[in-house]
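Before going further, it is useful to explain how the protein records used in this thesis are read. An example of such a record is reproduced below.

***
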Amino acid sequence: MKSFIKILSLFLFLAAVTVNLFSQNYWQHVPSPTGRLLLKCSFADSVFGWAAGDSGTIINTTNGGNNWSLQNSGITDYYIDDIFFLNRRLGWALSNDYFFNGSYVLKTTNGGVNWNTTRFPDTTVIISTIYFTDSLNGIATGFSGKVFRTTNNGANWTECFIDSTGCQFLYGFPKLRINFVNQTTGFMCGGQYDIVGAVWKTTNSGDTWSTYCITAEPLFDVKAINSNKIISSGGDFEFGAITSTSYNAALSWNYNNTGLFGIGRDLAFRTPSELWMPMSFAQTWALNLDSGSTNSPWISIPAPDSTSVYAARFLSPTFGFAFGSYGAILKYNTAMIGITPGGSIIPKDYSLGQNYPNPFNPSTNITYRLAKPEFVKISIYDLTGKLIKIFIEGNRPAGFNTFRFQNPGLASGVYIYKIDAGKFTESKKMVLIK
């Protein structure tokens, strides 16, 4: 019992340490007109953008993010659960009075200068995400699981058919994000904590949807990279952030645990290869330099000033914004040394990251960065200094690398992992609990 308490105490100490410490500031705060939590964003182009969140808050820029101002949504007591703009003029938002009046649909025809609010006709459902492919055709869904389609700009909504043959008993599970590739082909993602994460696909503008069970954790965003490659992100509090990728138009999926603490709430491509994923309450980013491909490593980068980031968008390799806690507006720092449009991040020094998950069982990820290519070995010791095992990573490239440590039958306890890369050496502690 005493040994368990010691291990737990050490875990609490380690949990307070950022997963991977970087001094670089890849994102910079810009002035915000609100202190409210911002959860969703939408951009019509590189000039006009919106973000929304707590207490009916909607903010807007009309000059490429140089200034942001508040808009009057007419909602004061509830979150803006989603916001979507088709162009600079036409947009929609959603809010919910969960117990009494159902869902509210907010619509603007002048860029949010004025918002008109109506109740969603089915007051028994919770509608929390919305997407329009053009000014007439749109899809709305949410926590009640039902999916609705409009073909007349929201004047009427009809319920869509969900084929759950590929994933039975999931009809009523929440749908959390919608993304269309074109007028006819679209995807939704969602699920339920500790039960399943699922993706739904339509090829007939949303009239019918096929269901795919692909993870054990809910999925919060889905992006179609091309007609065949689709990636979805999510996770939970216990296992951290996950992604799942399909290379055959959603017929099959490859699961990937990033090994990083947090939940992937959004997917933002800076370039076709460089993908940023805000990790919400973890106050970090997950960065992937291979389009989120299966088994490619994810790098943990702290958000500035311990900001919890929930939403992000890039309009070009040099134009990106993110939003989060306490009204935070973050702008991508294109002046950052080591980042160039279309390029990747090459660190100017060496470091060894804290393993994640920690404590772990049966495996954990160890991230390290190299200033130049090096021959790498990683050694595992117990607390007495006894060498347990040496892992030869071999010649590794400059930049960020990840080593996955699989527990070779060790007992519960505290262990030390050490990296040797050229003249660089560093060690950290990790906790194994069975």
